[in-house]
Task: structure prediction
Amino acid sequence: MARYTGSVCRLCRREGCKLFLKGEKCYGPNCTVGKRPTPPGEHGQARQRKMSEYGLQLREKQKAKRAYGVLENQFHHYFEEADRQKGITGENLLVLLERRLDNVVYRVGFGSSRPMARQLVMHGHILVNGKKVDIPSYLVKAGDVITVKEKTAENEYFKGLREGTGKVMPSWLTIDAANLKATVEAMPKREEIDLTIQENLIVELYSR
Result:
């Protein structure tokens, strides 16, 4: 499947906010967004025109796609599924994206970024309820237990995580750091999703 392979820092600069795609670098003084807040490209520093309504809607969709690492067709499928569900479509959409296995692996600190978490899943290092799941888009459900493959857990990186990931867990997830085990306690709620995305603009875009 096609996947963006360019500089992820350019994506953050294009959206004008941190998407946390490079792990610890995003939290430190070397973050590119802090140093170069203008959009990438030779015209990035030029005076920006006032963005149209469509432009604002498009930017919110692009921000969500890039933060969670999904491509256009897949994102559209998520929207259609969210629209079929009861409740508010925009909130349903973000909840579906949060339930992706690669996002959960990132949220609990097994991966320092979503791209790293996606690699861990795709390479078979993550177990769900004791079974290997190598599909990043797998949707977790309440009661699922996510663990690191026993052989993988002996890696120096994971040995360090046994003392704690240092991440603040959203209330719908709990972690047993010593055993590298995370549990999905409930489905995520909109107020627990910390990304600054105006999901209502995404709904308006697809409703055009």
